[in-house]
Amino acid sequence: MKPLRLKLNIEKRLATFNLSVEIEVGAEILVLFGPSGAGKTQTLNAIAGLMTPDAGEISLDGTVFFRSGSPGKPPAVNLPARKRHVGYVFQQYALFPHLTALDNVSYPIWRQPRARERAEALLERMRLTELANRYPHELSGGQQQRVAVARALAMQPRVLLMDEPFSALDTEIRSRLHEDLLRLQAESELIVIYVTHNLEDAFTVGHRLAVLRNGKIERIGAPNDVYPEMPHSLVSQKARKAHVS
Amino acid sequence: MNWQALMLSLQVTIVATIILFVIGLILGVLLARFRIRGQIIIETIIFLPLVLPPSVIGYFLLLTLGRGSPIVEWFHVNLLFRWPAAAIASAVIGLPLMVQSARAAIANVDQVLENAARTLGSSELEILWRVTLPLARRGVIAGLILGAARALGEFGATLMVAGNIPGQTQTLPLAIYDAVQARRYDQAQMMVVVMTAVAFVGLWCVRQLERPLDRRKAPLA
User: Fold this and answer.
1) Which residue of B17, B39, B45, B215 shows the fewest CB atoms closer than 10 Å?
2) Do A84 and B119 touch (CB under 8 A)?
3) In chain A, which residue's Cα lies nearest the Cα of B218?
4) Could you give the CA distance from residue B85 to residue B79 in angstroms, rounded to a whole number?
5) Are A138 and A211 found together in one domain?
6) Between vectors from CA B21 to CA B143 and to CA B160, what angle results, nearest 5°?
7) % helix, strand, coil for chain A, step of 5
8) Residue A212's domain is classified under what CATH number?
9) Do A81 and A17 belong together in one domain?
């Protein structure tokens, strides 16, 4: 598969500040790092189609997700969320509480042939086979997180958005999930945008790091270039190896 | 026991409940999820049957279903003084209870779940069917039971639009009234017991549905 590029250049007037973000992401994990209220989630929502920018353009190679019209007019292009095929892992996972883990994962593909087998394969990939028939409230935070990732991947997206995906989990589970994510990204040549306010997360998982503050990207680049003062040991060997290869 | 009236009551209530379900659900979704112009006026109109005398509702229905009204002119159907008129009257009287309960339950469903479904490729109708309604089902069913119980007990509006014709439009509440007027107290007593028992069971079910599910962390709305 040809590696894609996601291009984003948007403006949005929000209640407390103006969001103005321009980034281009390839098959990599880009960490969007910043304090809460910097516009990180809004940026993800714009890509997923859950928020409509005031101006700008969002495109995934040839496919235009959003393009503003002339000033004061409705957007020229505004693809609805359901047609964007962008995987989105929400901060609180947003699993459907009335469906089992397996049914959650097969939700987006229920009309397609062999939906059940494909969902089972995804659960296996996430080491969740034994928990397939559990409901979300019967799962731990880390397990819910993995179900949410499996569900987002079920429709085979080229873009995966993750909003503070591991913030509620303890360190040990987090580092394991980080390894999973790095492996997944490399296997599927996914474009991953990973939002976090945790600098350690940002360093362990990110190939590139963008610092978002007050709605604007302050710095962007390799984690060590953006934060040269960070202790080298924090940068995971795996992250660097994956980036080089 | 007036079996004829009982069967007719069941027939009227079943049709009224179907009307309640469809219209109540549409209104519940619209009021819970959309900001409509004149929303307060629409809500107030829907809730009027809760406080108006049933005879006033009956009067409005006579205007809507009677001679010269668009429904009669366009569709050439005259429903007045036939049992479908009783079903419509019962549905209108029960509607506020259904809408109130369904709206609250739908508004309670976390919109992040609906957004998640959107990113997973679902259309709005599919989201309603696969996410919102299953999660709001307890409230929707509770509203439906309340509305149906109210429809079963409808007296005044039914009397005005459908009359009190034994075997044709005489439902249980009307039959009770007739039995008492004719001093047939034994017959009235039986029907009173049936009505009370049905109402009690209905309300008991609603209480059960409204009770939070203990030992379950995720409430199914």
Assistant:
1) B215
2) yes
3) A137
4) 5
5) no
6) 90
7) 40, 25, 40
8) 3.40.50.300
9) yes
- Rounded CA separation B165/B150 (Å): 21
Single-letter code of the amino acid located at B102? A
For B142-157, the pLDDT digits (tens) are: 999 999 999 999 999 9
Please report whether residue B157 resides in a domain: yes
Does A74 reside within a domain?
Answer: yes
The pTM assigned to this predicted structure is 0.84
Residues of B in contact with A143 (CB under 8 A): none
Same domain, A163 and A237: yes
User: Residues A42-100: pLDDT tens digits?
Assistant: 999 999 999 999 999 999 988 999 999 888 788 999 999 999 999 999 999 999 999 99
Distance from CA of A161 to the nearest CA of B (A): 11
The Cβ of residue A236 has, within 10 Å, a number of other Cβ atoms equal to: 17
B220 part of a folded domain: no
State both tokens at A207: 């190939």
| Substitution target from B120, B127, B216 for chain A, most A beta carbons within 10 A | B120
ipTM above 0.90, yes or no: no
Residue span of the structural domain in which A29 resides? 6-85+158-244
Please indicate, yes or no, if residue B57 is contained in any of the structural domains.
yes
Domain shared by A75 and A173, yes or no: yes
The angle at the Cα of A101, spanning A96 to A107, to the nearest 5 degrees, equals 60
Domain count of the fold of chain B: 1
Instruction: Provide the number of structural domains found in chain A.
Output: 2
